[in-house]
Structure prediction request, 152 residues.
Amino acid sequence: MRQLPAWGLSLVIASTTGCDCEEDVRAQVIEETAEIAIGDRLLEVELATTTDQHERGLRYRSCGQPAMALVLSTPGELPIWQCDVALELDLLFVRAGRVVDVVVAAPPCPGPCGMCPLYGEGVEIDAVIEVATGVLQPQQLEVGVRVEGLPE
Prediction:
């Protein structure tokens, strides 16, 4: 059995979450999670609360159907790009407990990162929810949908 360096912990965590694949060692897997409600759907999300966690997001993730909430400490903009993201993602931009903007099926962008489109520019938010496309139903991917359970 090979010995993993400390930064390889994400590989171990990902491999114990029920998926049959190994995450890239560069993938971020956050242990802190929350159960949130998006409309009538309950969803467990990893909580990204720091700038570093926001920048990494779901980059390099390829196992299962990951979901992450990128939560800002104060309302502001948090444009999202799909550089080095292996999965198509639905992006929900949330302000004051409501979805204010949605991007459905944002495609992966292999780079160079500077050429990848940005989503959510100019939208003031409290959080962005990134979820693998297909996890949420169309009625949960609409502006105005209530989101509950995000930390304040």
In short: The two ends are 42 Å apart (CA to CA). The chain has one domain: 32-148.
